[in-house]
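JOB MANIFEST
job_type = single_chain_structure
chain_count = 1
residues = 452
[input]
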Amino acid sequence: MSGRQDITNKKIILSFAAKTILCRLRQNEYEGYIVGGTVRDSLLGIIPHDYDVATSASPQTVLKIFDDFTILKTGIKHGTVTVLINGEPIEVTTFRHDGNYIDGRHPESVSFTKTLLEDLKRRDFTVNAIAYSEESGIIDPFGGKNDLKKRILRTVGDPEERFSEDALRILRAIRFASVYGFKIEENTKKSIFELSGKLNALSAERIFSELKQIITGKNAEEVLLEYPYVISRILPELQDCIGFDQHTPYHKYDVYTHSVKALSACPADTITRLAALLHDCGKPQTFEIKNGVGHFYSHSAVSTEKAQQALVRLKADNVTKNAVVKLVKYHDAKIIDETEKSVKRWMNKLSSELFLKLIDLMIADNTAKTEESKKRLQKYKNIKEIIKSVIEKDECFSLRQLKINGNDLISLGIPKGKRVGKALSFLLDKVIEDECENEKNALLECALKNKL
């Protein structure tokens, strides 16, 4: 969605648990409001997945009011108590005012306040500083509802102050722009550029969590192209790519822009899009120009090393890290044969899931080049169809699918150890080449015939 949106008739949908919390607070003569993302998403027509409640009741009072429910006290020193109602967790937080932010991330202290306004003042963006209760309706002291209509993101108060308090808000702003399609208001944008150096103080885990959402957002391309130097703060491997002219007839964009265009052409999954963003990050270090044409010999090897370095630094999980590194490594591999045999070998090498992602990356990579390169697209689309066919027909392409195992070969007299593994690989090759049926007796006969 883009442009203005009619949110005047959108209803705030409350779960049974959220209604129970608000009702019981009111019965005990305390204020209670749904706040933050729940209200924002409801006004945008998005079904909320969780609820946050702000209340005038102290944490100790909340404990007493809800003592007949399971309560988690993990956030109580910051004024938050989690109440479980029918298995649904509701975070109930006392109206509070944050103290000084001494580390650019967390307040030194929090103090409780009696007014909702003081609580909303401390929040990051106007669209997140809206409250709601069934009695009071929408409470919007900072114009967040109007900003939602206009799809504008601005901070509550001075943006420099908000971002200096907590640098994570810089990435949150970019994430909201990517996921929701918001345009960041000019003063807010200016402070993002000026204070992006503060991102270096954030934990790797926080950065990676935001980055994954930024790159998979519906507006990822526009945001990444608008904030390249902010992105390169958290991914310095991309810094030299920004504006780097490739000087080839196959490319019409600089390295960074090409990578972002490729990312946008990928399915919106974290692994494929991360690989697209990093697949050419080694190009500036491998650039050579001959007869006026640019060449990037072994750039995939350098890109692989830099991608590994980036994902280790960001503390990516091993599944994501290993998959992205493999995709970067093979993104320009020469897959010549559009045959089932060739495809099965690649599926065995990478797994069917990862090979599909590789083909998606190759399609996206060529989509983001000149018309000359787009001639390859049909070939990759044909390969993708073959992959799907192999999967649908449940054809054998990996050792685990063989209708025989190591013990079967040992029973033939093949000694334990490496020889068994080599024999299984030989038999798999025969199956892929259609020289042996994937059936136990046929495989045993093939083993004996070839004196494995």
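[summary]
The two ends are 62 Å apart (CA to CA).
Residues 399-449 form one domain.
exit_status = 0
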